[in-house]
Write a structure and sequence with these properties.
The chain has 435 residues and is mainly α. The chain folds into two domains: 22-90, Orthogonal Bundle (Multidrug-efflux Transporter Regulator, Chain: A, Domain 2); 99-435, Citrate Synthase, domain 1 (Orthogonal Bundle). The protein has helices at residues 29-36, 40-48, 67-79, 83-90, 117-122, 127-136, 153-161, 167-184, 189-194, 198-212, 231-239, 245-257, 265-275, 280-290, 299-307, 313-325, 343-353, 360-376, 382-393, 400-420, and strands at 2-3, 15-16, 26-27, 54-55, 64-66, 103-106, 109-112, 115-116. α8 runs antiparallel to α14 (280-290). The longest helix has 21 residues, at 400-420. It is globular.
């Protein structure tokens, strides 16, 4: 939630509201030891092995320990007691339970079908080529542009009707709504499931979603893609951003780096829907809705609020310290898979720093990220890097999270395709407990 002053959101200052967590994101040493039921020496051994991360507090000797790391170690310990506990721990950053050939998570970042995402971005591979790689396993670098698939008139009218909504806050739900309507326009459920051409439907979904982004810009209406446009070109046009080489490179990198990342909540939701025999459009809508919450898609907005209006890195560092003092994680920092920082985030921050024009706000963000690592022991995630790059590109506020969702659509399609090859129904069992 943000308090805005003034009428122009581009010029307004957002004052981040104090988070009210249900429980602390961090634990003291005594709390971690009590939760794990171990001796202090065992906790320190877990830290030395990299299983549990500790965070420094400015001006204090005592350390904080990341709750989700402690919970994960505790779950794995309990999992030794039987298959039920293993399954339970797997549902929250636990043991892998679904085999996939799509994306592998490594210390260098995700690998799509064996190819490092950061390297694909560094080589300038297009988002379209990466999407086709995820879907087929082959990298066709010459296929950088898809032919634009005509949009049914009834779908266009429905999209235009959403312009009256508060698009900046409701875009995620609008994207899901439009995807469902687009699917309905393509015929009956049985026909679409059996068509055997999900890639064609996937390309159209992505193209239509690109046009929906125009509601965030001064266009304030649906802006369909033109023949011959790439996804990046259509997206920049929809957002009202100049088609410069720097902006093309930055947007392409974000789309490529965010295209997939193992079994995220959205990917899991898409696979569950696919296992029931749902259409591709229903699966993608399910993934969009699942990813629309404050812990996934809307965390980008929290990062924007945290960074807004800060004149210096010192102000941001004090804000971060205040978050930690309240037991809350700093928005945009500490990724469970990347203890020393998200490689995707590092790449995007480097892109932002290399741009010709730098503002005082961006300089404050870069300095704060460095100080947060050195003084607080926390490392940046992909969200804060994407927001910094969005600020550098001068794209409309609240766009970074939506760009993330658009990119992730490519990965969701791949997961739906893979899940359809399995005959099993994904249905976790529930364990009843007394209230």
């Amino acid at each position: 939630m943000t308090r805005w002053s003034g009428s122009d959101p581009r010029r307004s200052i957002a004052m981040p509201l104090s988070p009210q967590p249900k429980h602390s994101d961090y634990l003291s040493a005594q709390e971690a030891i009590r939760l794990l039921e171990v001796r202090p020496q065992t906790l320190y051994a877990y830290v030395s092995r990299g299983w549990i991360r500790k965070l420094r507090q400015a001006g204090r000797k005592d350390r904080l320990y990341l709750r989700e790391d402690v919970e994960r170690v505790r779950a794995r310990s309990q999992a030794r007691s039987g298959h039920g506990a293993v399954a339970a721990s797997a549902m929250h950053w636990g043991e892998p339970i679904i085999p996939t050939t799509i994306t592998q998570i490594t210390p260098e970042g995700p690998r799509y079908r064996g190819r490092l995402a950061v390297q694909l971005a560094r080589d300038g591979v297009s988002f379209e080529a990466v999407a086709e790689l995820l879907w087929s396993g082959f990298l066709y670098e010459d296929r950088s542009r898809w032919p634009v698939i005509p949009l049914p008139a009834e779908v266009r009218r429905l999209i235009q009707s959403t312009n009256e909504l508060r698009s900046s806050d409701q875009l995620f739900e609008i994207l899901a709504f439009v995807t469902l309507k687009l699917g309905i326009s393509r015929g009956g459920v049985a026909e679409r499931v059996r068509s055997g051409r999900p890639a064609d439907a996937a390309r159209q979904i992505i193209q239509v979603l690109v046009g929906c982004f125009a509601s965030l810009s001064s266009h304030r209406r649906f802006l369909p893609m033109r023949n011959g446009q790439s996804i990046v070109e259509g997206l920049l046009r929809s957002l009202g951003v100049a088609l410069t080489a720097e902006n093309r490179e930055a947007m392409e990198a974000m789309l490529v780096l965010f295209a997939d990342h193992e079994l995220s909540p959205g990917a899991f939701a898409a696979r569950v829907a696919a296992s029931t025999g749902a259409t591709l459009h229903s699966c993608i809508s399910c993934a969009l809705c699942t990813s629309s919450g404050v812990q996934v898609g809307r965390i980008f907005g929290q990062v924007e609020d945290f960074l807004a209006g800060a004149p210096s890195k010192a102000v941001l560092l004090r804000r971060a310290q205040n978050y930690q003092d309240r037991g809350s994680a700093v928005p945009g920092f500490v990724h469970p898979f990347y203890p020393k920082g998200d490689p995707r985030g590092r790449f995007l921050l480097d892109l932002a720093k290399r741009r010709a024009r730098q503002s005082r706000q961006l300089e404050a963000i870069y300095g704060f990220v460095d100080d947060a690592q050195e003084k607080l022991g926390i490392y940046p995630r992909h969200e804060i890097a994407a927001v910094a790059l969005a600020i550098a590109m001068d794209i409309p506020p609240h766009s970074a999270g939506a760009v993330f969702m658009l990119a992730r659509t490519a990965g969701w399609v791949a997961h739906v395709m893979e899940q359809r090859l399995s005959q099993g129904l994904l249905r976790p069992r529930a364990k009843f407990v007394e209230a």
